[in-house]
Design a protein that fits this description.
Distance between the termini of chain A: 28 Å
Helix content of chain A: 55-70%
CATH superfamily of the largest domain in chain A: lambda repressor-like DNA-binding domains
Number of domains of chain A: 2
Shape of chain A: flat
Structural class of chain B: alpha+beta
Structural class of chain A: mainly alpha
Radius of gyration of chain A: 21 Å
Oligomer: heterodimer
Largest sheet of chain B: 6 strands, mixed
Number of domains of chain B: 1
Number of strands of chain B: 8
Radius of gyration of chain B: 13 Å
Strand content of chain B: 15-25%
CATH architecture of the largest domain in chain A: Orthogonal Bundle
Number of strands of chain A: 3
Largest sheet of chain A: 3 strands, antiparallel
CATH class of the largest domain in chain A: Mainly Alpha
Distance between the termini of chain B: 24 Å
Amino acid sequence: MSELAERLAEEFKDKDYAHAYLEEHGNLVLAAQIKVLREMRGLTQRQLADLAGMKQERISALENVDYDAWTVKTLRKLAKAFDTGLEVSFVPCSRAIMSVVNVSAERLQVPARADDLKAFQKHKIVSSGGQWRAIDGNHLATVQPFSTSRPIDPQAQKNWLRFEKAEGAMMTAVGG
Amino acid sequence: MAFELYDYVAETGVNEFKVWTLALEKIQRAKLNARLDMLKRNGDALFPEILAGTGTAGILKLKIKGNVQLRPLLCRGPMNAGTEYTMLMGATEVGGKLKPKNADATANRLKAAVIADSMHRRMKHERVS
């Protein structure tokens, strides 16, 4: 486990501390992500402002890590301007901790809808344990070593249902 | 890319930044740690305006909003400017002015002390939660 994750798990036993930390972290990451997405799309603040129906000064304020008056309405406007989805949800603190320790410029990047859907349609949509999963080539590669440390349960294998027609590569990887 | 955080150490061997942090309220420490954690993990390039300049070149302030405007002063490096930050002293800001008075100039003197003897005048950052 990451040293920071362990530390936060201890610190977050204090409710007030946990919420103050997460609020501050959320402000930092939202501001950073808006800037990362804008630059990823080659937009100036003015161009993003036009797309989102805001003023350039407003975008400048939203990209400042000190901004702390977020509204879902504003985030929806930005999601439409960036052509991405927007996920606002309550999560366990443990998941929030993992989000903290995994922040990086790469992880803040989100492709626009058209590119994302194109890549998504190359995934295999499978069901496992009642949950649908989208698996790409890299994920299949990580599934293979599983069989060397623990034999695959044939019954469990049957639970892997393909959404599409079966393909040899997919079945080989899952079956080891 | 991960960065290393250091604290200035006084001639007496005391980590004065830690002493300042210990005197903060819990909520303030949480906000400070949230910012320092991101600074350590990603540096300041990813977070727009997380660090601001002061009246003294090379001395930066970390802005933390609250009832009291905390402005801990730090510098890049000073031994390896691209991979580390050194927390020099605690400060606050009232009416656009740093408190204690001339804190940035004081921080610059502490930075000089670190440069002169980096083995003894700084230590790995000590987190206070």
